[in-house]
Amino acid sequence: MSTIFTKIVNGEIPSYKIGENEKCYAFLDINPVAKGHTLVIPKVEVDYIFDLNDDTFAELMLFARKVAKSIEKTVPCNRIGVAVLGLEVPHAHIHLVPIQSEADLSFSRPKLKLPPNEMETIAQKIRKNFLS
Ligand code: 5GP
Fold this sequence. Notes:
- The protein is an alpha+beta fold.
- The chain has one domain: HIT-like (HIT family, subunit A), CATH 3.30.428.10.
- It contains three helices and five strands; from the N terminus they run αβββαββα.
- The chain has helices spanning 4-9, 54-74, 116-131, and strands at residues 17-20, 24-28, 38-42, 79-83, 94-99.
- A five-stranded antiparallel beta sheet has the order 1-2-3-5-4.
- The mean pLDDT is 97.
- Bound molecules: guanosine-5'-monophosphate.
- The site of guanosine-5'-monophosphate has 14 residues, from strand 2.
């Protein structure tokens, strides 16, 4: 059975998409810890990020940098925090979170509840910077 993230890549489940290339896909986290919180995943279904082969791992990192730069241009922040947890979804992913301070990268704080129109607006703005 496919993971929920594979279903997102295949369009079987909707996502607030930021961008993709041949091997990777980026979309907003549905329960963000900050506005612009984005997940970057390899299209290949591998649970643990450090089990990816060298090419895919390198591609994912380069793709994540491009996505991070577009979040940075869109959401006011000090920098983009990077986290890998993988405790919930067994499909490798990198969290990219716009942060002002260390506390903003806390995953134990209550998540934001943003309405769909706001999620779509954020995604559209990041997507535009991703493509430019
Ligand atoms: P982790 O596996 O890194 O511990 O957490 C998984 C992350 O994926 C969580 O931040 C959660 O909000 C996000 N997530 C889980 N299911 C979905 C989904 O169906 N769509 C999106 N966009 N994000 C999801």
